[in-house]
Amino acid sequence: MTAGDMSSDEARIDVSVVSALVAAQFPEWAELPVAPVGKPGVDNATYRLGDEMSVRLPRFERWVGQVFREHEWLPVLAPQLPLAVSVPLAQGEPGEGYPFPWSVYKWLDGDAAGPEALTDSEESARELAAFVAAFQRVDPTGGPPPGWSNGFRGVPMGDDSDSPIVESRVRPKIAALDGLYDVAALTEVWEAALAAPAWDGPPVWIHGDPAPGNILLQDGRFSAVIDFGTIAVGDPACDLIAAWNWFPTRQARDIYRADLKVDDATWTRGRGWGLVSTLPAPADLAEDADPARATQARRRLDALVEDCRRN
Q: Residue 125: is it exposed, middle or buried by C-beta count within 10 angstroms (0-12/13-18/19+)?
């Protein structure tokens, strides 16, 4: 779901840059060690700062607005959510050769693992649905609409803004799988999403990218959400990405849908978001691809197609 390739030049970020920024702007933390994390992020880079903090820095100018969005809205959202979320501690400024604002957060323990690490996907579906439902209940007054710095997550299907679901970007990605997968079936999924009625309710809070890497696990259960850069108030279909990124069985996906009380049109649009978030590159399905990765990619596509035809 990343749109990092839509931005301009990437900022240089490494341990020496982060250490220099911290020492210059927050001298009380200057002696704490800085270390990269296992999965540092694509749109933003994350580093560990001592034992109790992390540093998060936009890689591209496009994502600078995420810094301000998280600092403004996380203190409002956090008390109303059932999972732990990122806690902003300080906001840094450009310096030491780094050109953008950046943030220091409280460190949250957990593993940035994928669905294979869930001990009970059906119970996890209930837990994540409860989180998303609580998110949607928060008063959206004054909340940020979909925009450039959140990748336009939350816009209507068919919107031509520079987002992961802009049609001129999706159709070529589907076509690129010709000969590797049934592109007619994938096109059916996409066109059903485009044809579905638009969201006609008031805008609600969306996370924007509730996918592996943005949600932490402990002992096989969801424990914390760590990335809120794509939050907005908009179409809730976007957060149905989670059904296809986290829950490999129909039963778990049906629980997620039922607990969120998702209507047919929203589910169909959400399936479109799910398609975009799971479309593999041709190399991932080619004969010389990693067999396990290729099998997983095909299973996700199969699930989307089966669900489209079933519904």
A: buried
Cα gap 287→187, rounded to integer Å: 23
pLDDT band at 39; cut points 50, 70, 90: confident
Instruction: State whether residue 210 is helix, strand or coil.
Output: coil
Partnered with residue 150 across adjacent β-strands are none
Specify the pTM. Answer: 0.93
Tens digits of residue pLDDT in 6-16: 446 899 999 99
CA 89 to chain CA centroid, Å, is: 22
Per-residue pLDDT at 41: 79
CA-to-CA dists, residue 272 to 28, 90, 150, angstroms = 47, 37, 18
Dihedrals phi, psi of 299, to nearest 5 degrees:
-60, -40
Backbone angles phi, psi at 75, to 5 degrees: -60, -30
Q: Which residue ranges form the domains of the chain, and what is each CATH number?
A: 4-106 (3.30.200.20), 115-310 (3.90.1200.10)
Residue 30, CB half-sphere, CA atoms under 13 Å: how many? 7
What is the β-pairing status of strands 102-106 and 53-58?
Answer: antiparallel
Tell me the two tokens of residue 252.
């778990």
Query: Is residue 283 within a helix (H) or strand (E), and if so which, with residue range?
Result: helix 282-285
- The token duo for 123 is 């119970």
Query: What does the alpha-carbon distance between residue 108 and residue 51 come to, in Å, rounded to a whole number?
Result: 10
Q: Where does the pLDDT of residue 2 fall: very low under 50, low under 70, confident under 90, or very high at 90 and above?
A: very low
Q: How far apart are the first and last CA of the chain?
A: 25
